[in-house]
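Hi C.,

You asked whether I'd gotten around to modeling the 190-residue construct. I have! Everything is below, sequence then structure, no commentary in between.
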Amino acid sequence: MSALSTPATFVNTQIRSSPSKFGSLNLAFSLSANNKTGIFPRPFTAVAATSMASEQSSVKSINSVPDSSIKLLFVEMGVGYDQHGQDITSAAMRACRDAISSNSIPAFRRGSIPGVSFGEMKLQIKLGVPRPLQHLLDLEKVKSVFPYGAITNVEVVDGGLICSSGVHVEEMGDKNDDCYIVNAAVYVGY
């Protein structure tokens, strides 16, 4: 039997609907697999027990990005990973680079927006970072990724992911096998 066709057994399955304006669904289940291939070395539990509406309201800040001080033109999105070394700032910088790496913004340089010059470009950044790592984030380093535009607001919200990279490589500075993942949304306007 191949690793991809290893049968899994769901136990203790509970599905509860929770009323909210988004019609969210709460799930709680345990998953265990037949361990013939070694894919799942032990049973594990996955739980999702909060509605999206309550999660969003718990992480919104007063200066939510994007705020009304920007005339929004477009949004760039990216994902960044730090697989070795467990550095959340590196993951956030990679997420921001990913967001801006496939774009060119000639409108600001060429005067395509009447009455708006290159010097008036504004950026607002929203980062989804795992809560236990948010205090380790160096926002000044993250801001250094952007070659131009005035950064007027940065918001860090609960998001991203901590997962296993599958390997612990001490020579690469690993403290464990954690991989950090950060999501970025970069709002561009004037």
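If it helps when you're writing up: The radius of gyration is 21 Å.

Thanks,
B.
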